[in-house]
Design goal:
By secondary structure, the chain is α/β, with parallel strands linked by helices. The protein has one domain (about 65-245): NAD(P)-binding Rossmann-like Domain (Rossmann fold), CATH 3.40.50.720. Helices cover about 40% and strands about 10% of the residues. It has twelve helices and eight strands. It has a six-stranded parallel beta sheet with strand order 3-2-1-4-5-6. The protein has a two-stranded parallel ribbon with strand order 7-8. Strand 1, helix 1 and strand 2 form a beta-alpha-beta unit. Helix 11 (about 210-225) packs antiparallel against helix 12.
């Protein structure tokens, strides 16, 4: 497949490397000049372009940008055909993104993203830490393989995204329509807790919309207050304990 990744942070870079290694043609774009990321992109098996160039003629567009950058991408994706699958990997953190009234009022994050872009999206890879994505993928069929939730309204699109999730080393789990994507948002038991398929399904079912925002903020405050900074294992353990409290 031809894949464009908009955003060149840790998630974007890791996806670029994994999907290139799986045989896909990957283009990447960042907010800065493509020349500044060209060498690193090439090391990952990808090519660097502007955002407008990257999305031209691709099958899939992966948005791996801060949530606040999403509205500015509406013009970039406006000309894409309906068959192009757009994947949203973002998460809402008010301390970083500023308060967004609709999200504070309970609109699921990816529903808001879809509204800003004016087209459907599928939510995936948001509920996995960058370290997990980079280092904890396993071959298909491995007994201890971790799972990644996928939410969206297009069954064929979700199947395609599931293939890509599988290619990155994780079992895809259908998390329902986009309206239910809040179940994989920060502060819920499915978010960054490194679960198997069965455990992830149970975690999605146990999500609590009324408590998720306060749990998200409490988890973040806990992790940011620690000295020295928490290890990856400690971050996962804290998410597990505090999202289920």
């Amino acid at each position: 497949m031809k894949i464009a990744i908009i955003g060149f942070g840790q998630i974007g870079k890791t996806l670029a490397g994994k999907l290139s290694a799986a045989g896909h043609q990957v283009r990447v774009a960042a907010s800065r000049d493509p020349e500044t990321i060209a060498a690193e992109a090439a090391e990952l098996g990808a090519q660097a372009f502007t955002a407008a160039q990257a999305v031209d003629g691709v099958d899939v567009v992966i948005l791996s940008t801060p949530l606040t950058a999403v509205p500015s991408l509406a013009a970039t994706v406006a000309s894409l055909p309906a068959s192009t699958v757009v994947i949203d990997t973002s998460n809402y953190y008010p301390f970083r993104d500023g308060a967004i009234g609709a999200l504070d009022g309970g609109v699921p994050e990816s529903v808001w993203v879809s509204e800003q872009l004016g087209r459907p999206v599928i939510k995936a890879w948001n509920a996995v830490l960058s370290y997990t994505l980079a280092h904890h993928g396993k071959p298909e069929g491995a007994d201890d393989r971790l799972a990644v939730p996928i939410a969206g309204d297009d069954p064929a699109g979700k199947d395609l995204v599931g293939q890509l999730v599988n290619a990155t080393g994780f079992d895809p789990v259908d998390a329902g329509p986009l309206s239910q994507s809040w179940r994989q948002q920060p502060g819920n038991p499915a978010y960054c807790t490194e679960l198997s398929v069965q455990a992830l399904r149970a975690a999605l079912a146990a999500a609590d919309a009324a408590q998720a925002g306060s749990r998200r903020d409490a988890i973040l405050a806990n992790l940011m207050s620690r000295r020295p900074p928490p290890t990856h294992a400690e971050i996962v353990a804290t998410n597990r304990a505090m999202s289920a409290a």
